[in-house]
Predict the structure.
Amino acid sequence: MLPDLATYWARRSRCVSGSGMLLKFSGRLREALRPRDQLFVFEKSSGRSEAEPEHLYLRARALLRAGDMPITISLLQQACELDPTFSDAIESQGEALDRLGDSAAAVAKYDLARRIRRRARLGAPDRHFVWRQQKRSAAEILAYTSVIKSMRRHALPYLARGNAYLVGGQSELALADFQRALKLQPASLDALALKGEALVGMGRYHDAMKLFDRVLSARPADFDALNSRGIARMAAGRIEDANADWKRQLEVLAGKSAPSAYIALRMADYDTSLPHLMRALRANGSDSYWNLYASAASLRLGRPLLAGAMEDGDSWPALLTALLNGRATADEVLARADTPSRQGEAQFQLGILAFDRDRASARRHWQQVVEVCPPTLVEYAAARNELARPGI
Amino acid sequence: MFSVILYGRNDTHGYNLHKRAAISFNAIAEVMSDPDDEILFVDYNTPDDHPTFPEAIHDTLTDKAKKVLRILRIRPEQHAHLKSKTHLVALECQSRNVALRRSNPNNRWILYSNTDMLLVPRVDGQSLSEILGDVPDGFYQVPRFELPEMLWEAAFDRRDPAGNLAKLREWSVRYHLNQVVQNFMPMKYDALGDFQAALREDMFAVHGFDESMLLGWHCDSNLAARLALYRGRVDTLIDKVFGYHCDHTRVAAANNKGRQTRMNDQDRYIWNVTSPYVQAQAETWGWPDVEIEEVRLDRDTSYQRFTAGLNAALEPATVPYTTTSLEWHLFDDLTYEISHTLPFVCDQMLTYPRSSSIMLVATRAEFVERFVKAWKAMGFVGPVLVPEECEGLPDDLLGLVRGSAAEFLTQADMFIFEFGLSTQRANECVRIGRMRGAKDKARLDVVERIFRHAASMESETRPAHRRLPRRFVGVNVIYNKYWPLFTDYIAANINPFCSQVLAGLPRADPSIRGKVLRFRGRHAL
C-alpha cells in the first residue's frame, strides 16, 4: 500500500534521505534559495500553488528520478484526483508502476493517458503548427527548463518551452522565451513568427502584425504566418486585408482539405468550404466539429442538412449540431456555453439558424460573437465577414 | 499501417553485417500484420556491378521478409553530385527521404530504424501494426537496449525470427539487458534513431530529414528537434515495445573514428534548430523527379532474370563437358566457346539499370545474336548499339541499333568488346592452334581500333547525364594476344581463364606509357 503524504513527511523529517532532499528542494526551500530559478515558473505564473496538479507533478518527477516510487505514485495520484485529464501525470504513474514491476497496471495508465490525449481537441488545422498541439504541456515545460539550465546559449530549448507555454495559455512566459531565442538567433524568421503568435495570444494585434509583415516580406508563401496575420488583421478590424491573407493561404495550401475548410469558413465562404468540409468529415468522422461545420455551411447556403447530421452524443459540438437540426433549443445550448469561446460558437450557430427567417436576429447573434469571442476562433472571423456583407 | 525505412549498402559496415541485417529484416517483418505494411530498404551507392545488399543476403531472409521488402536502389551516378561534399559513401538523410517519398500512401506511420534492430512487442503475439494502429497521432520513440555481440552472433538463427524474439524476452530478464538511457529533450533517449515513429503526413509537412546533413550522425536528433517543435511532444511507446540493438563495436564501422569522427554540427542541427520545416528543400526533398529503381526479392529476381536470359539464348549442352586450354603456345589462338562464355558476360550486366544502353563491338555474328536475345530476355529495355564499322554482324534484330561508333560512344552506358574469330564455326574445337585469316584480322583490327579509342576517350565522350566512368567488358581477353591490350587500357582484375571475361573501368595511368597509349587511342579512329 502506498504511504500518504503526511506519513511520508513525518518519516522524512526524522531522516532526510537523498530523495527527501530532492523533494524539499523541489518546493519552497529551493525557491527561497534560488528565487530566479526558472524551474518553478508554474508557481510564479497565474498564482499557482503547491496544491495545484502541476506542482504535484513537478515534485513527483523529481522523486521518480531519485527512484522513490511509492511516494512518486502517491503524489501523481493526488495530481490526477485534482485533474483527471492530466495525461502527463497519468503517464508518469505508468512509468513508476512499470519500474516497480507492475507492468499490467502501467499499461493501463499509459493507455488511459493516450485516450485522454486522443479525445483532446487540438487547435484549428489552418493555424500555426504551435496551435495544433496538445494544450497540456507540463512535461515539456519541465523537460526544457532542465535543458535550459545546461544550455543557456541555444535557441531550441527556449522555443520548445515557449511553445509549451503558449499552448498552455501562458503567453507572457512564452513571449519571454521567444525573445530570448531571438537574441540568440536574431535572423530566425520562425522565432519571429512565434513571437508574433505570443503577441496575438496577449491581444497585442498591432505589434503582432508588424512581426508577421517582416516574416511575410521574406517568405511570402509562409502559410502559418499568413493565417496569423489574417487573424491579427481581423481583430484590428481590417477585414479586407485579413481575407486577402487567407485567400493567399488557400492558394498556398493547394487543396488540403482540413485547413482549407477552416480558412474558407473564416471568410464565411461556405461554397468553397463545404466540399473541403465533406472531405475532412469522410477522412475524420470522429471529430464532431466537421459534422457541425458542414451542417452549418449547408444550412447557410440554403441546402438541406446533411444526412449524417443527426449525431448522437453529449459533446459540445454535437449539441450545437442538434441545435441546427432542431433537436436542441437555444436555451439548452446557451446554458452550456460556459466560456467566451463556447458563447461565441453558440451565438454563431444561432445566427446561422436565424439567417433565412430573420436577418436582424442573425445580425444580433453575430454581433454577439464579435463581442464575446476570441479573434482566433473561426466563428469570430466568419461573423465579422457576415456582418460586413450588405443586407445583413 | 506502417512503413519501416532502413538504409545501407552492399559493403562491410561494422562486424558481421550480414548476420545482423538478416536477423533484423526477419524480426521486423515478423511483427508486421497489416497488408499495407512494408520495409523500405534504400540501397545507397552500392557499386553498379554489385547486387543490392538485401539481394546479397536473400537466402537468409524469410519468405515474409522478402514479401514485405521493397529495395530502392540509389546508383553511384545518382550520388555523384554529392560525392565531393562528404566523406561518407552512404547518406542517411537522402536515403530516408527517397524512401519516404515512395512509401505506401495508405500507411499512417513511418518508422525509422536500422538494420541491426529487433523490435519486441511486450505482449507476446501482439504485432507492431496493432500497436501503432491503437495509439493517437504523435511522434513516438522507444529506448534502445544493447545486445552483446556474443548473444546475437552465437545464439540467433537468422531464419527463426519468432525464436529470436522469444530468446530476447528471456535474456532481457536473465541478463539484465533492459536499461533505459535517458537523454535531454527533445531526444528523450540515447540512440533514438533506432525507433522513431512519425505520422507520414507529418513527415511530408516538415519536408523529411534535412538533406544538408552530409557528414553523418545526429540526423535522428535533428528530426527529433523538428518534430518536437512541430508536434509539441515527444512520446514514448516503452509500455508497448522494446527495441534491441545488435551491438557491433568489435570492429569500428567506417563512420566511427573515435574522437576523430567527423560529424554534422550539433549546435546547428540540434540546439539551434528554430523551425520544424526545411524550407530550402521543400520542393526537392526525397528527389521526387529522380527515377529510382525498385528491386523485389519475392518476384522478378536477378536470378530469374539471369536464367530467363540464358534460357532464351542457349540450348542445353549435349555432352558432359567441353575442353579448352591455356597453354602458352596457344596465345594467338582466338577461338572460344560462345555457349560457355555467354553466362559470364550476362553476369556482368545483370546489376545495371534496365534502361542501360550498351555498345557491343564484336567480330562474331553468333555472339551478337545470342547476346541480344539474352539482353532482351533479362528485361533490359535499352538498345544494343552495334557500330556499322563492324562488318558481318546482324542488323535486323529487335533491340539492336546500327550506327557509327563515334556516335554510339556518346550514347552508351557501358561497353562490350568481343575479340573472336569471325570465321569460327559453331561446332569447331577451340584452342587447338587455329590461326586467324585475313578476314578475321581485318575485323579484329576494327574492334581493336574502336576499343583503343573508346577507352582513351571515355571521359570526353561520356553522355551529359553521366558523371562517373563507364564500364568496359572484354570477351575472350584472357591469356591471349588481346589480354595485354585490354588490361593496358582497362583496370581489370585477374580472372580465371575459364570465364574468358574481364571487366573494369578505364585506367588512369599517369606514366609516360599510359599517356602514349591514350594518345594513340584518341587517334585510333
Notes: Residues 300-522 of chain B form a domain with the Rossmann fold fold (CATH 3.40.50).
